[in-house]
Amino acid sequence: MKITILVENTATRCPGLSSEFGFSAFVEYDGINVLFDTGSTGLFARNALKLGINLAKTDFVVISHGHWDHTGGLPYLIEGFDTKNMIFISHPDIFEKKVHGSRPYIGCPLKREEVERAFGKCMFMSAPTEFAPGAIFLGEVERKYEDPGNCGDHVVNGRTVPDPVSDDSAAVFKTSRGVVLLTGCSHSGILNLVKVAKQYGKLRAVVGGFHLHDASGLRLSGILSEFEKTAVPVLRPGHCTGAIPIRLMMQNLGAKRITTGDVITI
User: Do 228 and 258 meet the contact criterion of CB atoms below 8 Å apart?
Assistant: First the structure.
């Protein structure tokens, strides 16, 4: 399989590509094409064009969670491509109202009914689901091994309360070399995601945002220790992982930071 990073916070190794705060990846896996998240704007589509990726051939659009930096490109995808040929996959709660600090809204720019009109089929799932042979959307992930805390607020029954981002999920791909875990922000807790992914086989790679930029020293130490025990051969953190956690992973675990335009072949 091949994962191409269409958008990430940095663009350091591929001339001509631009970056933004957000994440989007294009996955070519066993005859199917998966667009995983869409970044903050339509930049993912412009970068895809420069990278020679035809987004019109996308079979599945998988959204990791409802924050703007992962769903902001959805209107551009719908306007620019025939999404009636694509299947949309996410947790059902990605459309709830999310706010943070001074920002009045940090959620998905589209309503559920707009997405349902735009795509040929929509799958809103809280439980793990194999959406194609060997490709699994993890659904709502139990916070069993790590407490990642909250991120901003969301509106529930008219009240603004801390948001645990229960809609956060990830995708797992089974390969002949092991299991690949692709994450958006890991608001569910990167250890929780890793433990679930390991149920599908030996971990070969973990790619994406790990959301550790504000993690305490104690929590970060525990996560690094668990990764050392798991010994993931391909560890590619980025986006919201944080500079210090990424540096420690590079020094202690042989990780390599992802950046816009990177191609990861498993």
Answer: no
- In contact, 7 and 43? CB cutoff 8 Å: yes
Strand runs labelled E in 92-221: 98-99, 121-124, 129-132, 135-137, 153-156, 159-162, 170-175, 178-183, 203-209
What digits encode the pLDDT tens for the residues 13-35? 888 999 999 999 999 999 999 99
pLDDT tens digit sequence for 51-61: 999 999 999 99
Provide the token pair at 251.
């020094």
Q: How many CB atoms lie within 10 A of CB 185?
A: 25
Which H helix or E strand runs over 157? none
Q: What span, in angstroms and rounded, lies between the C-alpha atoms of 7 and 23?
A: 5
How far is residue 166's CA from residue 171's CA, in Å, rounded to a whole number? 15
CATH assignment of the domain containing 95: 3.60.15.10
The residue type found at 90 is S
**Hey, is 65 helix, strand or coil?**
coil
Q: Which ranges constitute the DSSP H helices of 199-242?
A: 217-230
Question: Of 179, 259, 194, whose CA–CA distance to 5 is shortest?
Answer: 259
Q: pTM of the predicted model, to two decimals?
A: 0.97
Q: Would you call 103 exposed, middle or buried from its count of C-beta atoms within 10 A (0-12, 13-18, 19+)?
A: exposed
Indicate the number of domains in the chain: 1
Tokens (6 digits) for 131: 């959406």
Tell me which residue range forms the domain holding 50: 2-265
Q: Are 48 and 79 in contact (CB under 8 A)?
A: no
Tokens of 67: 């924050």
Pair of tokens at residue 158:
């008219």
